[in-house]
Design brief:
By secondary structure, the chain is mainly alpha-helical. The protein is built from 9 helices and 3 strands. A 3-stranded antiparallel sheet has the order 1-2-3. α3 (50-65) crosses α6 and α6 crosses α7 (121-127). The protein starts with a strand and ends with a helix. Residues 1-46 have low confidence and may be disordered.
């Protein structure tokens, strides 16, 4: 059973980035229910221009909005090399792995949820750095920077539950 989630459409509307609109047309995240568990699957067919748009969106969120340093951004992306990350930041990207796309998907979903939950941008952007009892006193950012996709999913699930 596949359930299509159009998370990015909401994120795109919330932040009004033109490139987000292109990204939403290309990227669909589906949850595949398998044997009692869920596995995130990204459909990358017919998405020739997705990589540059996805990286631009990621950088807009993590650098411009959350003001994260390069090392944190690289960790959230799955530790690409410095040269690869530099190329991505300067627009020299033709494709991204499914792992990287999934990570960007989680970041976009977290960003969207924060925009829905908090009345102003400064509160939404500050939340990720504040200690949270739900994460054993760690901030959401500290949890995400553990480096695993599971950690990104944990923060995303928490925010989705808070939204109801």
């Amino acid at each position: 059973m596949l359930i299509t989630i159009t998370t990015f459409i909401f994120a795109l509307v919330m932040v009004n980035f033109v490139h987000f609109m292109c990204f939403s047309l290309y990227l669909y995240v589906m949850l595949e229910v398998t044997g009692g568990g869920m596995q995130t699957v990204i459909n990358t067919q017919n998405m020739p221009n997705m990589a540059p748009v996805a990286i631009k969106m990621f950088i807009n969120i993590t650098s411009a909005e959350w003001q994260l340093p390069e090392k944190a951004m690289r960790t959230l992306l799955g530790e690409p090399s410095r040269s690869t990350f530099f190329n991505w930041r300067t627009g020299k990207v033709s494709s991204l792995s499914k792992d990287t796309l999934e990570r960007i998907s989680y970041i976009a979903g977290i960003y969207k949820s924060l925009k829905i939950l908090f009345p102003n941008v400064s509160q939404a952007n500050a939340w990720i750095k504040k200690p949270n009892a739900a994460f054993n006193g760690q901030s959401a950012l500290e949890v995400m920077l553990a480096g695993s996709i599971v950690d990104l999913a944990r923060v995303r699930r928490y925010l989705d539950a808070q939204r109801g």
